[in-house]
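It is worth pausing here to work through a concrete case rather than discussing structure prediction in the abstract. The textbook approach is simple: state the sequence, then state the predicted structure, then interpret. We follow exactly that order.
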Amino acid sequence: MPRRIDEISLGHPGISMNSIYLSLKHGGGKGRFPIRAAASARMQIARTAELKLGGRLVLGLSPQLEAGPATDFEPSTVERAVVTMRENSRLETGGWVVLGPGAQLIVAPGGRVALGRGTYISVGATIICRSTVTVGRDGGISWGVLMMDSNFHPVYKNEVPSSVDVPITIGDHVLIGARSVVLKGSTIGDGSIIAAGSVVSGEIPPNVMAGGVPAKVLHENVTWNW
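Step two, the predicted structure:
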């Protein structure tokens, strides 16, 4: 597990002006500079939205974890990290959370997102919430993952519409591999791993490795570390 975020070298000396600005505007008085942000990072938060930080929020930066050389490089070109919260939406963090360069978190009107302590959302990952997205503690969402709890359009079978928005629940210490897609109504149990390029559209039990389209259990009694 990575060290606490305030003990991790951000690789960016000092506190950026954007960190100061976003902390004063959206930090809610939670500690000293509770938001550490790259210069390009943006937070677009409606007046009626609620942001509740349980620890430091790192936005658009990639802290160096104690995981060896694989985390020691940065992409040469990335888009800005953005948090967007529409009217009456809510984002709650249970501790320090990282949204890496190019990551996007979009919470539609009335949507609810809860991110557990130690959630690491990597480069270019996107979470889109219209209902509820819950992510447990100490998990990793890898490069380019797309997670959305809605299909945005009703689908009819025998003229009966399906639910458009269905919550997503991710357990503690879950690793979602690069370029995977997590669709509405999905549940991933504690400690599980989703192989790169998978599409999750149902229930994945705890402590397994799952992969494929749609994702199915490939191995049981699986563990992983940072």
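Step three, interpretation. Helices lie at 17-26. DSSP finds one helix and 25 strands in the chain.
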